């Protein structure tokens, strides 16, 4: 049975293919941006009989430093793009089964883009909703 | 066994286990209504049971993998297949998880289905042919 830990690890591998982007599967105390943080939001069991399909919704949060607002927004523009070397959607969906670990995945949306505060520091962040079927 | 939430209705088609690709399973057994109303019916209609019939409805998750449901269904349209449903989340027939077996006419298959962004699924409803059997062991 596929574990959530394995899925998070594989998602992290995919995010790490984006140049100059660190990845964490845990919420760091002091993020070193740019960094992607993978969080499990919720699980919807029993999408098929006998646990034949489970839906797990993840949020991949990309955090960039806001030392320069313009450069930070330019970096985020690349991360939220449909395609390109920095595209989170492209990085994840280029391997939709995570090497056969899952049935399928889809980067559904970016519901939040804006400033966040962590450890008294202000960062710019974008949240990606990722639906994983396994 | 008491009331239960359906999480594991066991489904096989021609001996192929399809349970993990099934999102909904339903077997309906009907009887025709034969009217026997006459002048002695006191102004009401009277009916008795006539011939029985049935149907099997299944919602599937599309999957074209080797031995997966979409692959299996590909060549079955127009044929008679054997469907077995084990109720009560059971995997073998028992008094509390009875197994229903029916011959069905596989009269449709939807190989391509789904809106953009949705999980690809398809639904079928097959009429039964012949007797629907019921086993508890």
Short description:
The complex is a heterodimer of chains A (134) and B (137). Chain A has helices at 4-15, 69-79, 88-93, and strands at 22-24, 35-44, 55-65, 104-118, 121-133.
Description:
The complex is a heterodimer of chains A (134) and B (137). Chain A is an alpha+beta fold and 134 residues long. Chain A has a single domain, classed as Alpha-Beta Plaits. Chain A is 22% helix and 39% strand. Chain A has a 5-stranded mixed β-sheet. Chain A is elongated and about 50 Å long. Chain B is mainly beta. Chain B has 1 helix and 7 strands, in the order ββββαβββ. Chain B has a 7-stranded antiparallel β-sheet, with no helix packed on it. In chain B, strand 1 and strand 2 form a beta hairpin. The longest helix of chain B is centred in the middle third of the chain and has 5 residues. Chains A and B meet through loops of A and strand 3 of B.
Topology (elements, then pairings):
The complex is a heterodimer of chains A (134) and B (137).
Chain A: H1 4-15, E1 22-24, E2 35-44, E3 55-65, H2 69-79, H3 88-93, E4 104-118, E5 121-133
Parallel strand pairs in A: 1-2
Antiparallel strand pairs in A: 2-3, 3-5, 4-5
Chain B: E1 10-13, E2 16-17, E3 22-35, E4 47-61, H1 69-73, E5 80-86, E6 99-105, E7 121-135
Antiparallel strand pairs in B: 1-2, 1-5, 3-4, 4-7, 5-6, 6-7
């Amino acid at each position: 049975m596929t574990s959530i830990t394995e899925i998070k690890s594989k998602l992290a591998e995919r995010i790490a293919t984006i140049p100059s982007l660190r990845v964490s599967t845990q919420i760091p105390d002091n993020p070193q941006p740019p960094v992607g943080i993978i969080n499990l939001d919720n699980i919807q069991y029993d999408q098929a009989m006998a646990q034949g399909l489970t839906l797990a919704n993840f949020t991949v949060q990309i955090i960039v430093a806001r030392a320069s607002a313009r450069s930070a927004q330019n970096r985020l523009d690349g991360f939220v793009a449909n395609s390109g070397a920095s595209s989170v959607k492209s990085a994840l969906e280029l391997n939709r089964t995570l090497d056969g670990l899952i049935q399928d995945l889809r980067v559904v949306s970016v519901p939040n883009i804006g400033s966040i505060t962590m450890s008294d520091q202000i960062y710019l962040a974008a949240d990606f909703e990722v639906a994983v079927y396994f | 066994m008491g009331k239960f939430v359906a999480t594991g209705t066991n489904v096989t088609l021609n001996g192929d286990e399809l349970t993990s690709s099934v999102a909904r399973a339903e077997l309906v057994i009907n009887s025709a209504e034969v009217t026997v109303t006459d002048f002695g019916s006191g102004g009401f209609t009277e009916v008795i049971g006539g011939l029985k019939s049935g149907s099997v409805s299944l919602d599937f998750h599309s999957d074209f993998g080797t031995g997966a449901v979409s692959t299996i269904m590909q060549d079955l349209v127009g044929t008679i297949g054997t469907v077995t449903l084990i109720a009560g989340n059971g995997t073998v027939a028992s008094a509390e998880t009875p197994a229903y077996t029916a011959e069905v006419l596989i009269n449709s298959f939807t190989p391509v289905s789904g809106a953009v962004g949705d999980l690809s699924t398809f639904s079928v409803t097959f009429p039964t042919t012949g007797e629907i059997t019921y086993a508890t062991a």
